[in-house]
Amino acid sequence: SDMSHPYPAFWSPRVAGLEPYVPGEQPRIANLVKLNTNEHPSPPSPRVIAAIAEAARDGLQRYPDPESTSLREAIARRHGLQPAQVFVGNGSDEVLSHAFLAFFQRGEPLLFPDVTYSFYRVWTQLHGIEAEAVPVDEALRIEIDALARRAERGCAGVVIANPNAPTGQGLPLDAIEQLLRACPMRVVLVDEAYVDFGASSAAALVEAHPNLLVVQTLSKSRALAGLRVGFALGQPPLIEALARIKNSFNSYPLDRLAQAGAQAAIEDDEWFSAQCRAVIDTREGLALQLEDLGFEVLPSQANFVFARHPQRDAATLAAALRERAVLVRHFRQPRIDQWLRISIGTRAQCGVLVEALQAILEG
Ligand code: PMP
Predict the structure, then answer these.
(1) SS3 sequence of the chain
(2) Cβ of 117 below 6 Å from ligand 1
(3) Which stretches make up the Aminotransferase class I/classII large domain (predicted)?
(4) Ligand 1: does its nearest atom lie under 6 Å from the Cβ of 225?
(5) Which domains does the chain have, with CATH numbers?
(6) Beta carbon of 230 within 6 Å of any ligand 1 atom
(7) CB 238 less than 6 A from any atom of ligand 1
(8) pLDDT tens for the chain, residues 1 to 363
């Protein structure tokens, strides 16, 4: 091979700049306790399964509604908004990627915290967007004053995850409002993938703020990671921009099964509130047990906890857990490489995790 190219010669430099993605593992191991990708520990609502079965029996030979009208109406109703304020996509990752293209290519840096969802940086690289990571504080909290001051000096926009990933810490809505006021002519994107486990949704601010885009997913609190549905809430000009991006890619609309299942999930409030409460209860119990084992645990408003042991190397702990068929997430990243992100499983799964940790720490 030609040594002057550290990558295949056909590649454009933008592709060469992309890190190979290491996905959250989905291995096939018997009796696996899978606490590494923040999936819901239970199957979705039975109403979702019934709606998908019905959609499968009736009409798979026909194309789906390209506008996902009925689903968007259901999402709008749930958040007290109009369907023209709702955009849906194949998972929130697709919605986020479209939003980066629609709003942030403007020759100024897009701002996000230096500890956050790793895909924000990937999309800036992929779409040729300048990025500036604003440091979080010693306790890994987003420094809103610093971020707002930086935004006032000029930026392409701001992206934050609330609660943040992978730390799980939530921000109050007045912090979001501070960001919205800091750059009124730029979009502030609030990624609420984990908001239903105890944080406050900025959806309530959409009517008052033309520069706010809220993104949510059905992958976590609705237990539908396998169905691939996410959505954005914002005023119609922002939603229209996302639709133009999507249509320009000729991306597929949600398929019939996804539209039907997602609508049933959004409408099943009873299943939703009971399941969110169960995850939160389990999380609080697990945090206490981890502290008993000597871990420092960040306060979490998500369906995972972020924890470190003062005497044990995190990568070594993750590997030892893996040998016992318990998967947790370790990030080889500056600032957080001594931390473990542990998704909230069932009570039984969390019990297996705690027992495994006990054995490892005693060994
Ligand atoms: N945002 C954050 C912060 C996430 O952690 C995830 C899940 N990995 C996503 C968005 C994307 O989720 P999905 O594409 O399944 O909606």
Answers:
(1) CCCCCCCCCCCCHHHHCCCCCCCCCCCCCCCCEECCCCCCCCCCCHHHHHHHHHHHHCCCCCCCCCCCHHHHHHHHHHCCCCHHHEEEECCHHHHHHHHHHHHCCCCCCEEEECCCCCHHHHHHHHCCCCEEEECCCCCCCCCHHHHHHHHHCCCCEEEEECCCCCCCCCCCHHHHHHHHHHCCCCEEEEECCCHHHCCCCHHHHHHHCCCEEEEEECCCCCCCCCCCCEEEECCHHHHHHHHHHHHHCCCCCCCHHHHHHHHHHHHCHHHHHHHHHHHHHHHHHHHHHHHHCCCEECCCCCCEEEEECCCCCHHHHHHHHHHCCEECEECCCCCCCCCEEEECCCHHHHHHHHHHHHHHHHC
(2) yes
(3) 31-357
(4) yes
(5) 24-44+270-362 (3.90.1150.10), 46-267 (3.40.640.10)
(6) yes
(7) no
(8) 445 667 888 888 888 888 777 666 677 777 899 999 999 999 999 999 999 999 999 989 999 999 999 999 999 999 999 999 999 999 999 999 999 999 999 999 999 999 999 999 999 999 999 999 999 999 999 999 999 999 999 999 999 999 999 999 999 999 999 999 999 999 999 999 999 999 999 999 999 999 999 999 999 999 999 999 999 999 999 999 999 999 988 778 999 999 999 999 999 999 999 999 999 999 999 999 999 999 999 999 999 999 999 999 999 999 999 999 999 999 999 999 999 999 999 999 999 999 999 999 998
